Amino acid sequence: MVTAQLNSTSATREQTTIRVSALHAMAYCQRLYYLEEVEELYTQDAAVFAGRRLHVELENEDDGEWEDLFLESVELGLRGRVDALRTRVGQTIPYEHKRGRCDRDEHKQPQAWDSDRIQILAYACLLEMALGITVAEGRIRYHADNVLVRVPMNNAARTEVRTAIDQARQLRVSTYRPPVTDNERLCTRCSLAPVCLPEEARLAHDDSWQPVRLFPDDDDREIVHVLEPGTRVGRTGEQLKITRREQPVEKIPMRQVEQVVLHSFSQMSTQALHACVGQDIGVHLVPGGGRYMGSFDTRQGCIQRRRR
Hints:
single chain, alpha/beta, Lambda Exonuclease, Chain A, CATH 3.100.10.20, 4-stranded mixed β-sheet, 33% helix
C-alpha cells in the first residue's frame, strides 16, 4: 500500500476532508449523499458486494501495475483511495473499475456517467497535489460491456471538482434533507431506497403520483420443505416426485414451486437438480439441527428477500 498525506496551513488543517466516494454519491443523488454523510444511514445490497468482489478479483489478477493508493489533501478538502494507478507513455493515469455498463450519448458512443466522471476527476486532482504532476486524463473501465472511457483533465474539470467539494460542504451543514430526485429511475438502482422511501415521499407530496415498483413482485409460488429423513426428490416430466418411506409418491408441478428446502438426510437426484436450476427453483440444504449449509440458486439481486 502507498499512502500520501498532504500538509497545509493550520487554518485549512482544521477543515474535515470529504471522501471522493461521497462526491460520487452526491453527483448521483443529493439525498443519497445527505443520508449517508450527514444522517450516517448506510445499507448494502447484492450490487455493493458484487462491486467489492470485482476489486478483489482485479487485485488477484494484478499485472504488476496495481496500486492501493490512499490520498488526502486538507487544502483541497478531499480524501480517497484510487482503484489503480498506471503509467502510459510517461503519463500517470488513475483508473476506476465499474462492474456495470457505461452511459451512451445521442450517437450511442460510450461515455462516463456523471457520478463516475466527478469521481475520477477528483482522484486526478488529488494525484496532482500529492505528486506535483499534471494529470492529462483519468480512465474508467466498465466491465459489463468491456468499455474503457477516457475522461480528460483540464482547468474546467479542476474547477468542477472544487465546485462539487464546496457544494458537498454546504449540504453537510444543512439541517434540511434534500428532496427525492426527479429521476425516479435512479431510485430503482439505489441500495438506500429501503431507507430513503422515495416513492412514499413522492406520493406524500402529490396524491396523483403513480408509484413505480422499486422491488420485484412477491413470488407466489410455493416453498417445499422436505423434512423426513430418507425422502428422495426426483423428477418425472415437468413434476417433482417426492418419495417417502412407506407412503404414496407425491408429485408437484415444478411451475408451482419457488424453492425446495432439503432438511436432515433427504436427497435429490441430479436430474431433479438440473430441472430446478433450469426453472429458477432454488434448492437449499439444511442438515440436522437447522443450521443452513448452502444452496443452488441462480436468481440475482433482492438479497434481503432471499435471506428472509
